[in-house]
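Lecture 7 notes: from sequence to structure.
We start with the chain below.
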Amino acid sequence: MATPKTNRRATTLRTLLALLLLLLAACGGPPTAGQPTAASNAQPEPTAANAQPEPTAAPAATSAPTAASAAETQAQTIGEQLDLGQLSPDIPGPSAPVTIRFATWNAESEGLLKLVEQFQELHPNITIDLQGAPSEEMRDKLLTQVAGGTVPDVAYMDTSWVVDFASRGALTNLDEFIAKSNAVDPDDYVASFRDASSYEGSMYALPVDGESTGLFYRTDLFEAAGIAGPPKTWEEFEEAARKLTDAEKKQYGFALFANESAYYWYPWLWQAGGRLLSEDGSQIAFNDEAGKRAAEFYVGLKEYAPEDLLNSNSWDGRVAFANGTVGMYMAGAWFAGTLRDEFPDINGKWAAAPLPQDKQCATTIAGDVVAIFAQSKNKEAAWKWIEFLSAPQVMASQTIGTPEQPGSLLPPRTSLIENPEAYQNNDLLRGFAEQMACGVTDSAPNENYGQVEQVLNEQLARAIFGEVDAATALDDAAREGQELLAK
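Predicted structure tokens for the same chain:
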């Protein structure tokens, strides 16, 4: 899922320390038994009272808060107020100065620099050396460093990379460190984030932020087309797309991107009751009856999408939403900050809602983690750093924010997103938290799935361009993908 994440991070570096997470309102009940594992233990099942609230404009994105001192952080943020200098007293700090190399794509962020300063005041024998690289280059750079024995101690990584790196023996098993920590509780993580950070039953990374995918829509275009509110079902979605489309006026209902087809198709698959892989990760499952129905619906949306955007991507295509060329836009939370910062003229003319649903609600879960590489010679000191970033009050300061600097992110810890105080700065985050119950990830069981996704993306793109039908595209992707899974 690298392309959508790369697009989002391009915006993040300008607007937030980490990522924006934006999905408005709750979506009706959790996936049924036997379906992909969702974060169903993160939030109670949405009730009828909160399942589909009236659409509201999405909150404006805000710059991520910065941390000036341990005392200030504890005074201003929610969550358990731990002694940040004694998070794991049974793990000794270094007796002599050591340097921890930390690879991240936001190495120049003011917020991160202040966190480093705060940590080094607490641990004067540990120096954090920030090593930056563009987000789109980070994975390949880390793989090259692993092969060459020059890997950093710690990296800020895409959640979807964890299984791949752990299966190569490149990451440190964190179970022993976690067992001695006052700050890290595996049961406190939202299930889908914890599971995606694990390999063969052990955690190899700590989740620090996340995002889901939602539906942005132009309220002014909806009103002009006589559409009462955001669509709640597939049928309503297609009807809205049809009403918004007027090719002669170069106005369309939806933005569809063939280059990112797999990533943005996943929610439709899960909503239809399908899944990517079998539960043990050994078999392709996306080309069953549910998958083909979802693919036919998704590919069929090209009838309501501008043809000149099909070969573009969700980052470049953002302009089409801003100028009114498309009335609906499926994107991650990064899009809210983009609209606020780049297109202020349409403030008040757009809103966000949960994705429309079929048999069940479902949305894509993506995020980031911090991990220690197996080649690190200072694992205890490296642990102190990622444990600090994972402490409740630090995580809260960088996601939910403070009264002085409210944030627009959600942390991947249940104790934080269920805390009523989390929504005092920005009440719209309440709906985002409820939507977490619809988050799905079911590709983690197989370390080769990243290669399968590339094939699936190529085949769905062929269907969007009319080279094959949707069902054939899935069958071709499944045949080639099964060989990749078996490697």
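Points to note: Residues 78 and 421 are 7 Å apart (CA to CA). Confidence is low (pLDDT under 50) at residues 1-75.
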